[in-house]
Amino acid sequence: MKWIPIRGDFTLNDSKIVFNGGTDNVLGNIQTKQGLILSDQKMLAGKIKVDIEFETNELQGYEEAELIFDYIDERNFKCVGITGNTYKYEVKSCINGTWQYLRASGFVPALPKEKLHIEVDIMSSYLRLIIDGVEIFGASLINPIRRSSIGIWTSGSRKITFTDCKISFQPPEVFIISQFGDIYDQLYDGVIKPLCDKNNIKPIRADEISNSSVILDDIIKYIQTANIIIADITPNNPNVFYELGYAHAIGKEVILLCERGKRAGLPFDISGYRTIFYENTMIGKDKIEKEVEKYLEEALKRQGIL
């Protein structure tokens, strides 16, 4: 993995990155230095692991060591990790140079020790922060993230050392919202799943979720973590429209399907969305395969996956 400093004083040595800290005198005010360094690895979804070591476990409020994702430029990105603020663990967005805090935890006077192992699971509109094997929090993100460079954001007057940074990638996911049975199962098994397999996409449908948690909680989570939603709106199924409304509300890429001739018209609130109308015939199967594949490809390109 290669690293390029964008801001701040860094020393690079094999798998070790050292932020050297320091202070600046700006118009008579002493300010701590900030650092931003980017890797050559780009990620949309997956896991980032790194060991972070401070000179002491008692951090000052301006000390930060966080992992960057959803990077646009040095004034626009998201980051998650450790800070010397009142809450020691956080995820936040930098928007045009202004910080917006999304989630924080760890109301403690000091870190448990100087060196901590951080893991971050990033899943489209959701992430999890894990410190030394303990899940600190899960956080919903304001908008689905884009495929971008992974980096490090840091601040402070003292050295902070990063070692053994590892990134693993997760294939894009499609969550399918539909009624179950008859043609809907045939469409899923005969068209959507094969297309997903062909394009290295993981398909998920609610009836395939098998655990002991509340099913609606699982559905909400999978909508959050999916890169693309496919929703069949042929019947007036309240569950389908509830889930579709949530997907639209959090800004998901949505592909709408509807069997031709089964509705007098689309509901007003979704009538403006592009919809694939299909026919339940062999010829119709070939046509919907081409249409869904085209829509999937366009959605993946918009997210920077293709």
Q: What sequence of helices (H) and strands (E) makes up the elements? A: EEEEEEEEEEEEEEEEEHEHEHEEH
**Which term fits the overall shape?**
elongated
The major sheet is characterized as:
7 strands, antiparallel
Helix content: 10-25%
Strand order of the biggest β-sheet:
1-6-15-8-9-10-11
Distance between the termini: 21 Å
**Tally of helical segments:** 4
* Share in β-strands: over 45%
Average of per-residue pLDDT values = 91
Quick gist of this model?
With 306 residues, this protein is α+β, with helices and mostly antiparallel strands.
Structural account:
It is a single chain. This protein is of the alpha+beta class and 306 residues long. It has 4 helices and 21 strands. The chain has helices at 182-198, 215-225, 238-249, 282-302, and strands spanning 3-7, 10-13, 16-19, 23-26, 29-32, 34-43, 45-54, 64-73, 76-83, 87-95, 98-107, 115-123, 126-131, 134-140, 148-155, 160-169, 173-177, 202-205, 228-232, 253-259, 275-278. The strands form 4 sheets. The chain has a 7-stranded antiparallel sheet with strand order 1-6-15-8-9-10-11, with no helix packed on it. Strands 2-3-16-7-12-13-14 form a 7-stranded antiparallel sheet. Helix 1 (182-198) packs across helix 4 (282-302). The longest helix is centred in the last third of the chain and has 21 residues, at 282-302.
